[in-house]
Design goal:
With 328 residues, the protein is of the alpha/beta class. The protein has helices at residues 27-37, 51-61, 67-78, 80-87, 104-111, 123-136, 178-192, 208-214, 221-237, 296-305, and strands at residues 2-5, 41-42, 92-96, 115-120, 141-146, 164-168, 197-203, 246-253, 258-265, 269-273, 276-280, 285-292, 311-315, 321-327. It has a seven-stranded mixed sheet with strand order 5-4-3-6-7-14-13, sandwiched between helices.
Length: 328
C-alpha cells in the first residue's frame, strides 16, 4: 500500500500518517478519507444508500438467493396478531432505515397507530415511500425524517413521547460491530421512551451455503450494489474511483459470525480526492460491510444490556430469522 498526501509546505515531505487536508467544518468527509487511508481501507455501509443504491437494494430483496426479506415479511404476516397483542396500544410507529416502507405496511393495519414516522438517510427516497403510505392509509398522520440513524434521531416536535414503537426490520442491526450495535440499541431505547418498545428483526446463523449465496447472487445485483458505493463516495469526497476496476467479494467469517463484503482492486491504481490520494495494489481490498448473524439468546442478552425489559421473540419454522419485541 502506498499513500500520498498533499503537503502543507512545498519543501516538506508528505507523511505516511498525515490525513488529507479536508476542510475542518466537514467531519463526514474527514471520516470518509480517514477510513480510506487505513489498512485495510474501509468505508461505512451508509454509502450504499444513495438513490441508485436504494433502488439496487430493492432489487436485491427480490432475488431468489436473498432469503432475509421474504422470510421476515412472512413472519410479520403470520405473527402480526401476536405482535399487536404484545405491543398493545401504539400512538407512534417510528421506522428506522425505512427505505421503501414495505414491511411497515404489515404492521400499520394491526397496530393502528395515530402517527407513522419514516426515518432514513436517503431523504427523497423515504419521502416518496412515506407519501405512498399516506395514500394507502388516508386517516394516518405521516412524516418523513432524513437522518443518519447512527446518531441520535430528533423527531418533529409534535410527535408525542408516550406510546412509541421503534421498528427496525431487515436485520440491519447486523451491519454494525457489536459495540456499535450496543450504542445503537441504547439510542433506540431512548427514542422509544418510557412505556414504549422496539420491534427488531435479526438474521440467525444458518448453513454456510445459504448465507454466502445470499450475498453472491447469480445475477450480480449485489456486486453492482457494492460497487455503486464508490460512485456515492466520489460524490461525497470528490474522489475519482473507477468502479469498473473493483471486484465484489463476499464471504462468511466464522470466527466473527458475520458475512463480510469487500471491493477488491482488479489492478494497481491510484485514487485521488481534494487534499489526498491513495495507491491500491492489485488484490487490495476496501471493507464495505459486515452482516453479523447473532444467535437469539446472545441478542436477547444485548437487549437487556441496552436497557430493555421484557422481550418476546418469534422465529420462522426453519429458525432462519427472528422478530423480537422488547419493552422499555
Amino acid at each position: 500500500m502506498l499513500l500520498s498526501v498533499a503537503p502543507a509546505d512545498a519543501e516538506a515531505p508528505p507523511s505516511m500518517s498525515t490525513l488529507p487536508d479536508i476542510p475542518a467544518p466537514d467531519p463526514e468527509r474527514q471520516a470518509l478519507a480517514r477510513g480510506l487511508l487505513q489498512t485495510p481501507a474501509h468505508i461505512s455501509a451508509k454509502y450504499f444508500y444513495d438513490q441508485r443504491g436504494c433502488e439496487l437494494f430493492e432489487d436485491i430483496t427480490r432475488l431468489p438467493e436473498y432469503y432475509p426479506t421474504r422470510t421476515e415479511k412472512a413472519l410479520l404476516q403470520a405473527r402480526g396478531g401476536d405482535i399487536a397483542r404484545s405491543v398493545g396500544p401504539c400512538t407512534s410507529l417510528i421506522e428506522l432505515g425505512a427505505g421503501n416502507c414495505e414491511k411497515v405496511r404489515l404492521l400499520l393495519a394491526a397496530l393502528q397507530p395515530q402517527c407513522f414516522v419514516g426515518v432514513d438517510i436517503a431523504g427523497p427516497f423515504v419521502q416518496a415511500a412515506v407519501d405512498g403510505v399516506a395514500r394507502e392509509f388516508p386517516g394516518l398522520e405521516v412524516c418523513a425524517v432524513e437522518a443518519d440513524i447512527t446518531a441520535p434521531v430528533t423527531l418533529p416536535a409534535h410527535i408525542g413521547e408516550r406510546g412509541r414503537l421503534v421498528f427496525y426490520p431487515g436485520s440491519s442491526i447486523g451491519n454494525f460491530d457489536p459495540d456499535q450495535s450496543m450504542t445503537l440499541l441504547r439510542q433506540m431505547r431512548a427514542l422509544a421512551g418510557e412505556g414504549g418498545g422496539l420491534l427488531i428483526g435479526i438474521d440467525l446463523p444458518k448453513d454456510l451455503l445459504v448465507l454466502e449465496a445470499a450475498y453472491n447472487d447469480a445475477a450480480g445485483v449485489t456486486a453492482e450494489f457494492n460497487r455503486n458505493a464508490l460512485a456515492h463516495v466520489n460524490q461525497c469526497l470528490g474522489s475519482d474511483f473507477d468502479a469498473a476496476q473493483w471486484e465484489h467479494v463476499a464471504f462468511f467469517n466464522a470466527a466473527h459470525s458475520r458475512i463480510e463484503m469487500h471491493l477488491q482492486a482488479r489492478a494497481e491504481q491510484q485514487v485521488r480526492w481534494p487534499g489526498g490520494a491513495r495507491a491500491f495494489a492489485q488484490g487490495e481490498r476496501i471493507h464495505t460491510e459486515n452482516s453479523y448473524k447473532y444467535p437469539l439468546p446472545l441478542f436477547l442478552q444485548m437487549l437487556t444490556q441496552a436497557g430493555f425489559k421484557a422481550c418476546k421473540a418469534w422465529t420462522d419454522s426453519r429458525d432462519w430469522f427472528a422478530v423480537i419485541h422488547a419493552k422499555t
